[in-house]
Structure formats: structure tokens, C-alpha cells
Amino acid sequence: MASAVEQLVRNANWGALAKATELKQRILFVLGALLVYRLGTYIPVPGIDPHIWSEIYSQKGGGILDMFNMFAGGALQRMTIFALNIMPYISASIIMQLMTAMSPSLEALKKEGESGRTKINQYTRYLTVFLAAMQAYGLAIGLESMQGASGSAVIDPGLFFRISTVITIVGGTVFLMWLGEQITARGIGNGISLIIFAGIVAELPRAFASTLELSRQGQIQFAELLILAVMVVSVIAFIVFIERAQRRITVQYPKRQVGNKMYGGDQSHLPLKLNTSGVIPPIFASSLLFLPLTVIQFTGTEATGWASELARYLQHGSPIYMLVYASLIVFFAFFYTAIMFNPQENAEMLRKNGGFIPGIRPGKHTADYLDFILTRLTAVGAAYLVFISLLPELLISRYSVPFYFGGTSLLIVVTVTMDTVAHIHSHLIAHQYEGLLKRAKLRGRRG
């Protein structure tokens, strides 16, 4: 893929891009949708005093709250209609996928094809609304209890404020869910991933500028700043290398004689990515950790009880937090890989098409072989995801670097960028292929 893109750039064949009207429309639609999303992150929730809330956030900010705010594109810090961002939808997707794996009726529904997937998506939307309503109501109660030096964050607390806050924030989350689906259908790439990507990228310049300001003031040593820059560049290169890594399994097709001619005998490859699950495990793990810890941090940890103990043990950067985070990443890496690639189904498909893996008997032996290879690849991929996600945590904990360019956010930015470029490249190739077919037909008519 990289060589094809480089060749395209060297040839400067931008005429093909100019003629690809559909591709231009898709790119413009994505840019317009992301612009709408960014505008929404500046529309405040009604009834909130922005100055007092900014003061309260500066006191309560840090750790898991800043991480959530980074994923929300700064919407939580400004307490806007997109304060929850797309996280309720991600949580609902996690729950539905787990239920599909455990429930025979949902599993049968999934196998019904497009109609079954449509129903499951509908259930996911209903669950998203329910989770967003619960979180928005808890957020409204938490806001009413918050006091700054200048007074309460809520101008007029009461039932009306709670209802209006729930409606506003749930509406914002549902709108983002719809917007993500529209980007996927009418744009380029995965809409949900692009929304998270846009939120992270939008906050990076501000964080980078604040880091340079701290370095100018002498609060960060130049050596620490240099180590951070080298780490970011190295991690980006490592992510690109691993995301492109594949295990190519040779597949042989037997020869067939039809009349006097011999067909078949071809050899192809079954590519298995080293990281089949992609960026999903860190996102799912972060989403599950964000939900309880954000509620605890909003309601306050001064009170005694299980909430304060949980907040203390799961404090951002603590050993237990990193252990739980790593365990969730490993679990979702294996879980999502099992959903994406079924060894039994692929072995059966190879058998029906007459293909076989050299040295492996078709059927159950092929399925066991594919499962063995995939398990080893997933173990390496899960270790890679844990390393990428926890390396910044360890460095920040060790050197107290305030600029949080987390492994999860870095992984999302690089992976989504690569995926979007791959989609654009696919559209360009499809457009060039259609052009070649049209020219071939015209030549055939002239002949």
C-alpha cells in the first residue's frame, strides 16, 4: 500500500483525483461533519456558569478526568452538549457484543445477515440512549453539588435543570451517534473513530503549546522535553510497523482438468494481521474505566465508603489502575479477534473452494491450525497494545511530565490516519480501474 501511495505522489497524478467526483464529495462531507462536531463542543449546557465551572474543573482536573476530556475534544472542560461525546455508544457496543457472544438468540439474530445486524444496531442505539440518560442525570446531580470560590456551578438548581441537562446531553450523544453513522455511510473511513480522532487532534496543539510554555518557564527540563519528543516519534514508527505486520499463510488450490485444458493449481496467501483487533481494545478498556471513575470524581472522594476506596485504588497512574487497564486490553484483544476472524468458518470456506494449506488436512485440522496461529498472533498483538498504552503512563509517573500524549490517543491518531489513507487509496484505485474498463470498451467498439 505504501509503495502504491508513494508512486502516486511521485507521478503527481492529481488529475485522477480531480475526476473522482464521488471521492471529493465524500472527503468534503467528512470535513463538514467534523466541523459541525467541533462547533458542538463549544455550545454550553444551559444553566451552567462557565466561569465558576472553569474554576471547579481546574481544581478537580487531572488524571482520568483529563483523559476523558481529551477523548471528548475538550467538551467536558467547557461542559457543552457533547460532554459525554460518543462514549455511551461505545459502552453500548461493548455490552451488545458481549451479550451476542453469550446469548444464543442474539447469536442467531447476528447470523441472519443484514436484517439481523440491523436489529442488533437498533438495540445498540436504544442502549446508548439509556446509558447516556443515566450518565447525564448523574452528571446533573454532580454539577448541582459542586461549589467554587464564587458560588455554585449551577445557576438555578432543581428538577428543571436536571431534566434540561439530561435532554441536552442525551440529544448531543444521539446526534454524534447519528453523525458517526452518516460519516461511515457517506464519507471515508469509520465515523465513530474519526469523531474520536478529531477530538484528540483538536486538543493536541493547546497541550503542545502549554508544554513549550512550561519548558520556557523552566518547569520542564530540556532533556525531559527531548525524551518526550523522541518517545513520541519512536512510538509512531513502532505503531506503523506493527499495524502493517502480517502473517501470510500459503493456500494451495489443486489443478482441475476441463476438457483438454488444465485449470487451477494457483497459490495464494491468507493474510492474518498481527493486531487483528486494531484500536478497539484500548478504546473499550478506556470507556469501561471512564464510566465509574468519572462518576466518582464528580461526586467527590472526600466521603468515606467504597467509592473513595475505589477511587484511591484506581487512581490514574497507580499500579492497580494500570493492571486493570492492561487486563481489559488483553481481554478485548482476544474477544474482538474472535469476533472478527472465525477459524472454523474460514477453514470451511477454504474447503468449499477447493483450497488447502500445504501439510495440513482440510476441515478440522485446518481450523485448529488457523486457531493456533491466530492465538499466538493475538498474544503478541495484545502485548503490543498493552506496551503502547502503558509506556506513557510509566514515563509520566516516573518523570512527572505534565504533557499527556497518551499511548491510547497516539494509537488512535496513527491507526485512524492509516485507515483513512487506505480508504482514499482504494477509491482512487477503483476509479482508475473503472477508467481502464471504459477505455477498453471504447477500443473494443472501435475495433
Quick gist of this model?
The chain has 447 residues and is mainly α.
Q: How many strand elements?
A: 6
Class by SSE composition: mainly alpha
| Overall shape | globular
- Residue ranges: pLDDT <50 for 5 or more in a row? 1-5, 8-15
Q: Mind telling me the C-alpha Rg?
A: 25 Å
| CATH class descriptor name | Mainly Alpha
Q: How much of the polypeptide forms β-strand, as a percent range?
A: 5-15%
Count, helices: 18
**How many domains comprise the coordinates?**
1
Would you give the CATH topology?
A: Preprotein translocase SecY subunit
Oligomer: single chain
Task: Describe what you observe in this structure.
This protein has a single domain (2-446), classed as SecY subunit domain (Preprotein translocase SecY subunit). The protein starts with a helix and ends with a helix. It is built from 18 helices and 6 strands. The longest helix has 40 residues, at 407-446. The protein has a two-stranded antiparallel ribbon with strand order 1-2. Strands 3-6 form a two-stranded antiparallel sheet. Residues 1-5 and 8-15 have low confidence and may be disordered. The protein has helices at 2-11, 14-19, 21-40, 50-60, 64-71, 75-78, 87-102, 104-110, 114-144, 159-186, 191-216, 222-244, 280-299, 306-313, 319-340, 343-352, 364-399, 407-446, and strands spanning 147-148, 151-152, 246-252, 255-258, 261-264, 267-273. Helix 5 crosses helix 13, helix 7 packs across helix 8 (104-110) and helix 11 (191-216) packs across helix 18. It has 447 residues and is mainly α.
